């Protein structure tokens, strides 16, 4: 396991964020929902493990032959996550599944034919976090951002 950077005094939410892999330290930090596993780390937990992922919705599919199943593809700064939303879960989280631009999904990992899916158990619309990307003030004290240089 790679060595972690020392914790900062900014608090646990800030420590949950950090530079993207391969990102030079001079780049601005990106907000990251706390306690979410980045896409590139989805191979680490065992199959059936309960994980939480978050990302931008880049695809929603509801094939007529899928009997009410919805396939959602999320993208974070490290890769993509395939999410399967069964009909019962869709009915419980309909608004988030249909209209969310940025979702946090908790569910069980499933691996089949070298493809990893998250079988959704809960779906949360966290689209308001997108506004943090546009905020040019208040970033210094916002725990959703890791320590880093100010934007010019």
What would you note in describing this structure?
With 152 residues, the protein is an alpha+beta fold. Helices cover 13% and strands 32% of the residues. It contains 4 helices and 5 strands; from the N terminus they run αβββααββα. It has helices at residues 12-15, 87-92, 94-99, 131-134; strands spanning 50-61, 70-76, 79-85, 102-112, 115-125. It has a 5-stranded mixed β-barrel with strand order 1-2-3-5-4. The longest helix is centred in the middle third of the chain and has 6 residues, at 87-92. Residues 1-20 have low confidence and may be disordered.
What is the helix tally? 4
Number of strands: 5
Give the terminus-to-terminus CA distance: 35 Å
* Main sheet properties: 5 strands, mixed, barrel
Element-by-element helix/strand order: HEEEHHEEH
Proportion of helical residues = 10-25%
Low-confidence stretches: 1-20
What class do helices, strands and sheet pairing give?
A: alpha+beta
Q: Which strands sit side by side, in order, in the main sheet?
A: 1-2-3-5-4
Bulk shape:
globular
What order do the helices and strands come in, and which of them pair?
Layout: H1 12-15, E1 50-61, E2 70-76, E3 79-85, H2 87-92, H3 94-99, E4 102-112, E5 115-125, H4 131-134
Parallel strand pairs: 3-5
Antiparallel strand pairs: 1-2, 1-4, 2-3, 4-5
Short summary:
This protein has 152 residues and is of the alpha+beta class.
